[in-house]
Design goal:
- It is found in: Cell membrane.
- This is histidine kinase.
- It comes from Dactylosporangium fulvum.
- Strand 4 and strand 5 form a beta hairpin.
- By secondary structure, the chain is an alpha+beta fold.
- It has seven helices and seven strands; from the N terminus they run ααβααββαββααββ.
- The two termini are 41 Å apart.
- The protein is globular and about 70 Å long.
- Helix 1 packs antiparallel against helix 2 and helix 5 runs antiparallel to helix 7.
- It has a five-stranded mixed beta sheet. Strands 1-3 form a two-stranded antiparallel sheet.
- Bound molecules: adenosine-5'-diphosphate.
- Adenosine-5'-diphosphate binds next to helix 5 and helix 7.
C-alpha cells in the first residue's frame, strides 16, 4: 500500500500543488490495486490446471493410474490450457498498454469471414453444429488481418463452444451506414441479462466449472474487445438465455 499523500496546505499555489499531488497518489493506489487483482486472478487461473497436471503425474508415478493414451491426452490438455492463459495474458498486457503492434492493410472483410468459417468447419462438424456464412460484400476495411482474424476466431470458437449438437452458428458480414458489420450468431445456451455486461471483462465466465471443462482462458473476449477498439470499432453482445447469442463487431 502506498502512503504518499500529504496533508492539504491551505488554498494558495502550494495548496493546489498538494491537492494535485494527492490526486496522483490516489490514481497510483488505484492502479496498484488493479495490478494486485490481476496477479491474484492469474495465480488463481493457473493453479487449477497446474494442480490437475501434478495430480495426474503423481498418480502415474505411484502406479495408481496406468499410463494410457487418454491419460497423456489429459496431461497435454492441462499443460496446453496453461500455455493458452499465458499467451492470452501476454496479448492482453501488450494490448492494454498500447504496445500491440498492428500491420494495417486494405482488405475485404468478407474474405476474412469466409476464411474463419472454413477454418472452423472441422471443429463445428466434431461438435455437431452447422456453421454457415452469409456475406454481402465487398466490405473494404483498413486493419490488421491477423488480429482481426483472431477476433473472429474467438467469437466463432465461443459460439461453437457454447452451442450443443444439433444447433447452428451463422456468420454474417454486411455494410451498415457506411461501416462494415460482422455478426456471429449462435443457437447456444445464451447469457443471462445480468451477466451480459461482464462478458468482456478479464477472466469473467458465466459458469466457471462448466467453462473450465471447455478449455477457455476467460480472456478471449477481453482481448477481442481491445483489438476492435484499437481499430476504432465497436463490439457488443446480445443474448437470450436458452435461445442463443449474437456478437456484433462494427468497423
Ligand atoms: P472463455 O475463454 O472462457 O470462452 P471469453 O472471454 O471468450 O472466455 O468468454 C467469457 C465468457 O462469456 C465465457 O466463459 C462464457 O461464459 C461467456 N460466453 C462467451 N461467448 C458466449 C456464447 N457465444 N454463448 C454463451 N456464452 C458465451
Amino acid at each position: 500500500h502506498l502512503d504518499t499523500r500529504v496533508p492539504p496546505v491551505g488554498s494558495g499555489e502550494l495548496g493546489q500543488l498538494s491537492t494535485s499531488f494527492n490526486r496522483m497518489a490516489q490514481a497510483l493506489e488505484v492502479a496498484e490495486a488493479a495490478q494486485r487483482r490481476l496477479v491474484a486472478s492469474v495465480a488463481h487461473e493457473l493453479r487449477t490446471p497446474l494442480s490437475n497436471l501434478l495430480g495426474y503425474l503423481e498418480a502415474l508415478q505411484d502406479g495408481v493410474l496406468p499410463p494410457s493414451r487418454e491419460l497423456f491426452a489429459s496431461l497435454h490438455d492441462e499443460a496446453q490450457l496453461q500455455r493458452r492463459i499465458l499467451d492470452d495474458l501476454q496479448d492482453l498486457t501488450l494490448a492494454e498498454s498500447g504496445h500491440l503492434t498492428y500491420r494495417r492493410v486494405d482488405f475485404d472483410l468478407c474474405d476474412l469471414v469466409e476464411a474463419a468459417r472454413v477454418a472452423h468447419l472441422a471443429v463445428a462438424e466434431a461438435a455437431g453444429v452447422r456453421l454457415t456464412a452469409e456475406v454481402a460484400g465487398p466490405l473494404p476495411v483498413h486493419g490488421d488481418q491477423d488480429r482481426l482474424r483472431q477476433v473472429l476466431g474467438n467469437l466463432v470458437t465461443n459460439a461453437l463452444r457454447y452451442t450443443d449438437a444439433g444447433g447452428a452458428v451463422v456468420l454474417r458480414a454486411f455494410p451498415e451506414e457506411g461501416r462494415s458489420v460482422v455478426e456471429v450468431e449462435d443457437t447456444g445456451c445464451g447469457i443471462e441479462p445480468a451477466d451480459l455486461p461482464f462478458v468482456f471483462q478479464r477472466f469473467w465466465r458465466a459458469d466457471p466449472a462448466r467453462d473450465r471443462a471447455t478449455g477457455g482462458s476467460g480472456l478471449g473476449l477481453t482481448i477481442a474487445r481491445q483489438i476492435v477498439l484499437d481499430h476504432d470499432g465497436t463490439i457488443d453482445a446480445s443474448s437470450t438465455p436458452g435461445v442463443g447469442s449474437t456478437f456484433r463487431v462494427t468497423l
